[in-house]
Amino acid sequence: MKNIDYVGKFKVAGFLSLLLVIGTVVLFFTKGLNYGVDFRGGVEIQVKFKTTVGLGDIRELMSQKNVALSQLQSIGEASQNEFLLKLETDKGDLNAISSQVSTVLTEKYGADSFEILKNDIVGPKAGSQLRTSAFQALAWAIIAIMIYLALRFDYKFAPGAIAALIHDVTIIVGAFILTQKEFSLQIVAALLAIIGYSVNDTVVIYDRVREIENAHPTMSSFEIMNRALNETMSRTIITSLTVLGVSVVMLVWGGSVIQDFFFAMTIGVILGVYSTIFIAVPMTVFTEKFSKKNA
């Protein structure tokens, strides 16, 4: 078994992570997230044509008819002729805007030449409420995990795990701000999945820490944490590479509809491993030292 000093690298890793988190906060208040229809309000229409139609043709048609498209993308293979039209607005009758799109397509291509597979309409107020609820869900998930860790293990384990989770979620949000990828309900679902994955990895290592503590009561916390990390590293690598492999495959070949979800998952898996090894577990050592010093 290798004896790598993971805990000793906490200062460097912590400084790097702190810079990334601060950078994300600055970006959030300066550039902001590109909220999707779910959170900002608007119309989302999925259309399937029976004949070949190009993206440029639809974009030009909507421009001619003064329909303000915020996003237009192809879904699946080009031969499927499926498109997703997104119109974001905080004014006007959203139902009327949706009907206008249908009318424009009918005038150009004929009523029998296309089929509307999905027509989602979200008002600005409802979008704002969904946005608030989404961030509340993330906060409650983190609080619940903190309580669980404190009850199952010891209070000293909770701060490190929570810091790691906040670190992961914050940096993923930063990646979405930088790329201006759409931040929607499915991304919130990805963040919740990442929180669950990351804390599962942390709990496995914490279990090993507790076993070593019971078997070697004279060992220092520094030695216990490093030993636990080294003993579980093969499991961490195998599990993470398996999940990461699936996530990357879906990111590359899964299609545009789920691409953003797996973009978040791919970054999240990498961050989850990093934060568990270099943030969560090392912080437990310093939390214990701090509590002993105060006592």
Provide a descriptive summary of the structure in words.
Helix content is 69%, strand content 11%. The protein contains nine helices and six strands; from the N terminus they run H-E-H-E-H-E-E-H-E-H-H-E-H-H-H. The chain folds into two domains: 7-36 and 126-294, Up-down Bundle (Multidrug efflux transporter AcrB transmembrane fold); 42-122, ACT domain (Alpha-Beta Plaits). It is elongated, with a radius of gyration of 24 Å. With 295 residues, it is α+β, with helices and mostly antiparallel strands.
Key attributes of the depicted protein:
about 300 residues, about 10% strand, 4-stranded antiparallel sheet, single chain, Multidrug efflux transporter AcrB transmembrane fold, two-stranded parallel sheet, alpha+beta, elongated, 2 domains, Alpha-Beta Plaits, 6 strands
* Secondary structure: number of strands: 6
Count structural domains. Answer: 2
How much helix is in the residues? 55-70%
How would you classify the helix and strand content by structural class?
alpha+beta
Quaternary state, please?
A: single chain
Average predicted confidence as pLDDT: 85
Examine the secondary-structure arrangement and name the CATH architecture of the largest domain. Answer: Up-down Bundle
Q: What spatial form do the alpha-carbon principal axes imply?
A: elongated
Radius of gyration from CA coordinates:
24 Å
How would you write the strand order of the largest sheet? Answer: 3-4-2-5
Could you tell me the CATH topology label of the largest domain: Multidrug efflux transporter AcrB transmembrane fold
Any idea of the CATH class of the largest domain? Mainly Alpha
Report the order of strands and helices.
HEHEHEEHEHHEHHH
Strand portion: 5-15%
Low-pLDDT windows of residues: none
State the end-to-end CA separation.
36 Å
SS field, number of helical segments: 9
